[in-house]
Amino acid sequence: MSRPPRVTDLQIDEAARAVFLAQGPSAPLQDIAKRLGISQAALLHRVGTKEALMSRALRPVPPTALVLLEPGPKDTASIEDQLLEALLHHRDFLRQLVPWLFVLHYSALGGARALHLETPPPVALREGLTKWLTRAKRSGRVDLAQPRVAAEALCGALEARCFNAHVGGSTYAPGNDEAILRQLIRVLMTPKEAPTRVRKRTTR
Asked: Which residue among 98, 150, 151, 165 is least crowded, i.e. fewest CB within 10 A of its CB?
């Protein structure tokens, strides 16, 4: 008798994620097992329960934007460009996360709260962005009254676009993400410029 194929935890999570996203939380475990080339019994032996598998497969990882924000503002690039890069990283993360949250919401788990995350990704990003903007303000590189409010506005706008795009596509989230985010950054903050010297008028 041939030995059953050995699958990794990563392969299990990827297969489960694909099936749950395609069929929703009611997807049968048999479909996941078939995708992996193993029996349903073997799959259950590895994961315990369907709920445990769903929680594991759809558990979000920390936003990649946090890695960019952690060192603080760099002197080698403009504040606007650095901020835009971090926000676009977070946009890609949210495009992945939003569909997962929909599946969890309609599952027996009762939504993302069942994942027992110490700090949900959107909250972590707000905190990281607030710290980054505060450092940019203290270094004198931006004219910004309240970094936390600016972080809330940027994250909220981005989350709304990603949510609307998932629900209704480009019709619900028209326009180019990068162009809209860049314009929003310019509305919320102004890079500080060197004071303009006033030329004295000489009398003859």
From this structure: 98
pLDDT, mean over the chain:
88
Residue 47: enclosing H or E segment and its boundaries? helix 40-47
Stated pTM of the model: 0.81
CA distances from 193 to 21, 133, 143, 150, 197 (A): 49, 17, 9, 20, 12
Mean pLDDT of 47-67: 90
The CATH class of 9-57 is: mainly alpha
CA distance 81 to 188: 14
**Three-class SS of residue 191?**
strand
DSSP 8-state secondary structure symbol assigned to residue 115: G
Q: What's the CATH number of domain 65-191, 3.40.50, 3.30.70, 1.10.357, 2.30.30?
A: 1.10.357
Is residue 48 packed enough to be buried (19+ CB in 10 Å), middle (13-18) or exposed (0-12)? exposed
Kindly indicate the confidence band of residue 41, based on its pLDDT and cuts at 50, 70 and 90: very high
